[in-house]
Automatic annotation (TrEMBL):
<dbReference type="InterPro" id="IPR050086">
    <property type="entry name" value="MetN_ABC_transporter-like"/>
</dbReference>
<dbReference type="InterPro" id="IPR027417">
    <property type="entry name" value="P-loop_NTPase"/>
</dbReference>
<dbReference type="InterPro" id="IPR003593">
    <property type="entry name" value="AAA+_ATPase"/>
</dbReference>
<dbReference type="GO" id="GO:0016887">
    <property type="term" value="F:ATP hydrolysis activity"/>
</dbReference>
<feature type="domain" description="ABC transporter">
    <location>
        <begin position="20"/>
        <end position="254"/>
    </location>
</feature>
<keyword id="KW-1003">Cell membrane</keyword>
<comment type="similarity">
    <text>Belongs to the ABC transporter superfamily.</text>
</comment>
<dbReference type="Pfam" id="PF00005">
    <property type="entry name" value="ABC_tran"/>
</dbReference>
<dbReference type="GO" id="GO:0005886">
    <property type="term" value="C:plasma membrane"/>
</dbReference>
<dbReference type="GO" id="GO:0005524">
    <property type="term" value="F:ATP binding"/>
</dbReference>
<dbReference type="InterPro" id="IPR017871">
    <property type="entry name" value="ABC_transporter-like_CS"/>
</dbReference>
<dbReference type="GO" id="GO:0015426">
    <property type="term" value="F:ATPase-coupled polar amino acid-transporter activity"/>
</dbReference>
<keyword id="KW-0029">Amino-acid transport</keyword>
<keyword id="KW-0813">Transport</keyword>
<keyword id="KW-0472">Membrane</keyword>
<protein>
    <recommendedName>
        <fullName>ABC-type polar-amino-acid transporter</fullName>
        <ecNumber>7.4.2.1</ecNumber>
    </recommendedName>
</protein>
<dbReference type="InterPro" id="IPR003439">
    <property type="entry name" value="ABC_transporter-like_ATP-bd"/>
</dbReference>
């Protein structure tokens, strides 16, 4: 089982095509050093899966990339531009980085269509008619076009998460961050969300995905990052990582998630 569905080759991506760059990034929560000297370059079109034990800093890493969390030192650049501190530039930057959370975070009192159209109208100043047209296309793309006029609570978890993905895509993000997007779903709904993500990967979206779905990592990731205690302990192709992890931490972690 060595076939990899996604055939992009990260080694062939020139350094100039770096889309997300973290240099020597450090982050503390009080006495806790949650990101320790993180150096990471993600190429345009690359799919990076981040795995590691609970508390290792995976969510914090994602949240710093779209500036939901500040950093204490180091630099983060998106497409060559350092993350702005605040204000209008920050709102624009956030729109360039799509984020999908474990808990779908849809507006309960707005329809599915409104949820997907809203950001375009508010942040991008797109006319409502145009925003709704695009929202319908995106809802079709993630397979929930027929749910457009319902409210989130009327949808299954898998459908809601696909709406959340459509909402993020509506902003034309340069990179999509997924933080355990299937962890809150009933098992029978996990695949419908992973399939949408697989398709995005095939379409060339740059993606950072925190997940324990090893099947997804094997088939969609160009690179697996293993984090522990706020550090990137190991990184490799999925094939290398899953068949021959190098560090004891990674071996221990894999034995727990693969043989439970
Ligand atoms: N807002 C916060 N305030 C204080 N500590 C936090 C906060 N967010 C996360 N942490 C701590 O930082 C560490 C890393 O958390 P997190 O990035 O959520 O890890 P992971 O996503 O890998 O489980 C954990 O010890 C967590 O308890
Ligand atoms: Mg987390």
């Amino acid at each position: 089982m060595t076939e990899v569905v996604v055939t992009k080759d990260k080694d062939s991506a020139p350094a100039a095509d770096a889309l997300v760059v973290l240099e020597n990034v450090n982050k503390h929560f009080g006495p806790l050093h949650v990101l320790q000297d993180i150096d990471l370059t993600i190429a345009r079109g690359e799919v990076v899966v981040v795995i590691g034990p609970s508390g290792s800093g995976k969510s914090t890493l994602c949240r710093t990339i779209n500036r939901l969390e500040t950093i204490d030192s180091g630099v983060i650049r998106i497409d060559g531009k350092p993350l702005p501190a605040e204000g209008r530039d920050l709102a624009r930057l956030r729109a360039e980085v799509g984020m999908v959370f474990q808990s779908f975070n849809l507006f309960a009192h707005k329809t599915v269509l409104q949820n997907v159209a809203l950001g375009q109208v508010k942040v991008r100043k797109v006319p409502r008619r145009e925003a709704e047209e695009k929202a319908r296309q995106l809802l079709d793309r993630v397979g929930v076009g027929n749910q457009a006029d319902k409210y989130p609570a009327q949808l299954s978890g898998g459908q809601q998460q696909r709406v959340a993905i459509a909402r993020a895509l509506a902003m034309d993000p340069k990179v999509m961050l997924f933080d355990e997007p299937t962890s809150a779903l009933d098992p029978e709904m996990i695949n419908e969300v992973l399939e949408v993500m697989q398709q995005l990967a095939r379409d060339g979206m740059t993606m950072v995905v925190v997940t324990h779905e090893m099947g997804f990592a094997r088939s969609a990731a160009n690179r697996v990052l293993f984090m522990a205690d706020g550090r990137i302990v190991e990184q490799a192709t999925p094939e290398q990582f899953f068949t021959a992890p190098k560090s004891d931490r990674a071996k221990d972690f894999l034995s727990k998630i693969l043989h439970h």
